[in-house]
Specification:
Layout lengths: L1 H15 L56 E12 L20 E4 L7 E5 L6 E8 L9 E4 H7 L6 E9 L1
């Protein structure tokens, strides 16, 4: 019990002592310098003066880039387009290549193989460019047979056919 009493007395005495206990009263006041954020980085060096532009320099604020002309197209008129797809997929075309229903190709009776034709659906305004790689269509009311991908882009899949405008692209 005396041990316990002694501890209690020491605790009360420690609490009663001023907070400067253990420090000498004659210590010198030294300023503590806190590091700053900018002090952790290398000093910034000024950039050299900007050189004068040479005679070949272009002022991008006033420069107008040349406008690229659209490829010239020769109108072939209007006609009815249909499409062919899964049944002919993988078969040889008249040009000798294999038909790909997911490619942008078409069959035409007279245009040379490799010709590029711009096909436009006037009711939707959508257009695709196809390459002629086959002969047909063999239905005389049709003008061109498109691959399934081209017909889908033009919106002809639901009806199976539709009126289109054709133009030969140079």
């Amino acid at each position: 019990m005396t041990n316990r009493t002694l501890r209690s007395v020491l605790f009360v005495a420690a609490m009663a002592l001023p907070s400067t206990a253990g420090h000498s009263q004659t210590s010198e006041q030294t300023a503590v310098v806190q590091p700053t954020f900018g002090g952790h980085f290398a000093p910034y060096r000024d950039l050299p003066d900007q050189p004068e532009p040479g005679p070949q320099a272009v002022d991008l604020d006033t420069f107008e880039p040349p406008v690229e002309a659209a490829p010239a197209a020769t109108s072939l008129g209007q006609g009815v387009a249909s499409y062919y797809g899964k049944r002919f997929h993988g078969r040889r075309t008249a040009s000798g290549e294999r038909f790909d229903m997911n490619g942008y190709t078409a069959a035409h009776r007279t245009l040379p193989f490799g010709s590029k034709v711009l096909v436009t659906n006037p009711s939707t305004g959508k257009s695709v460019t196809v390459r002629i790689n086959d002969r047909g269509p063999f239905n005389h009311s049709r003008t061109i047979d498109l691959s399934r991908a081209a017909a889908q882009d033009l919106g002809l899949i639901a009806r199976g056919h539709g009126t289109v405008e054709l133009a030969l692209v140079d």
